[in-house]
Write a structure and sequence with these properties.
single chain, D-Maltodextrin-Binding Protein, domain 2, ten-stranded mixed beta sheet, about 35% helix, about 20% strand
Length: about 290
Amino acid sequence: MRNHLLTLAVAVVISWLLIQSGIKEQSRSPENSIVVKESAFQRVMRTRVLRCGYVTYFPGLVKDVNTGQFTGFDYDIVTSIAGYLNLKVEWAEEVGWGTALEGLRTNRYDALCVGMWNKPVYNQHALYVIPNFYQPVFAVTRQDETRFDSDLDAINDPNVKIAAIDGDAPVFIAAEDYPKATVWTVPNMTEFSQVMEEVKSRKADVTMVDAPTFAEYNTKNPGQVKLVQTNNPIRIMPCSMAVSLGEHDFKALFDSAIEYLVLSGRMDKILNKYDKTPNSFIRHKKPN
């Protein structure tokens, strides 16, 4: 009887040891291992390379088709930040305004390295850095158009067409301020100047752009379109770079770099190079 009980006890112990061994082995298997995903901030700190998504537009970021070299205030801002942080910048992917945040979500680049007009709805999809500056947005019409000269609310009419790039901020502004008007969209990767072409050719009655975009178009097409109510912009938009949702350390890094650019006077020096048109930028004020 004692031998039988001893044999049974040994069998129970061996069974328990085998079960525990199996559990430990299973926990070590790749299928059950816990993989901690490296954040964009961690990857950039490890590699010292900042992969940038970007939108080309004048005068923020312009690419020379022959040399591939970039110029513009966004280029100067990002290059300055990279210099402060000892990072190499890789201009990884050109995108459109309407698809820029998707590239962050799918990890195709670490940051959107151009100042984007930031609306609250966009913050559901990305974290925005403190603005590089702020920018007035104006209505633009044909030279012979007078309906909106004294009353921008006249745009809110079923007979009015507003030209906008698909997915760009003016689409949302139109929905908020002028819901009765019709929005006439052009494809996402279209040059900004195209919305003014739509107005010039009478496909649309009005569009919304910033002063530098208007000035570049007006230089090439003098007397065709005009800014309406330059003392009364439709919006004043923050122009901010962006990182992925959850990347709070990365945002804090960019925030501190932008603040340093402003307080050191470097931001003013950069913007002075491109501030050729009235109402181009509203700059941060330094504390007294």
